[in-house]
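User: Assemble these into one structure.

Assistant: Restating your components, then the assembled model:
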Amino acid sequence: MTLLDGKKISNEIKEEIAAEVAQMKDRGEKVPHLAAVLVGNDGASLTYVGSKVRSCKKIGFGSTLIHLPEETTEDTLLQKVKELNEDAEIDGYIVQLPLPQHIDEQKVLMAVDPDKDVDGFHPVNFGKMALDMESFISATPSGIMELLQRYEIDTEGKHAVVIGRSHIVGRPMSILMSQKREAANCTVTLTHSRTKNMKELTLQADIIVSALGVPHFLKADMVKEGAVIIDVGITRVPDASKKRGYYLTGDVDFENVGKKASFITPVPGGVGPMTIAMLLKNTLLARERHRA
Ligand code: GUN
């Protein structure tokens, strides 16, 4: 079994980006600048956004964190989005999800300039991705594709089963894996919480991408010998004995599934770090497109 070391690969990608940023600086060019909007104080979101901003600093990007209170109105947030669209210093930005209940997420995402939408959540970017056109591909699915590619995993004609149909991971993942592109060309089955014969399907899978958010959902008896396992789930399980009061766990029963898998991602340290690396890559791309 080979561990798919997302931490290591993401560090390699960050070093590649840092080298490009250094060259931009040497040429006297503007460096990429990523902004992140966070509304409220959700613990996981605070951690993710903090990590994104820190990564920017490390590789030489400019970064701006816009932290708005939980009670921020939809209008105020839309105004902020408008400002970011118009701010020439900002190459790309993200609005961290989930947003508070009183804000219409779709409305906010629709207001983001597609040319600055480094999360790839705007319908224009999602549509372009689905049509094989150049776009911003959202960071988690593209991070998984990059991981498969860098470990030279043979995906050609293989059966990929995606678990979870979210707009951010499962749905785009199912589209990407079915496309005529590197680390893809798969036959894809997209499964979700209403799927009746889950085990029957996962047992046929050469590659499983689980993005359900249910700890230890994927058990060893659901997996074929030699399957490639990608675990996108990252759930905080309360545990008073831990320093932070919780531990992180994936969708996969790693200990037992790992014994059957050919390749498997750990949680944490698998898909998570790849997401940040690909967000930075998209921001570099945004800078290059704005310059062109
Ligand atoms: N919430 C969970 N994942 C993501 C992500 O990739 N981007 C944003 N903006 N919010 C998220």
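Residues 94-97, 119, 139-140, 168, 275 surround guanine (CB under 6 Å).
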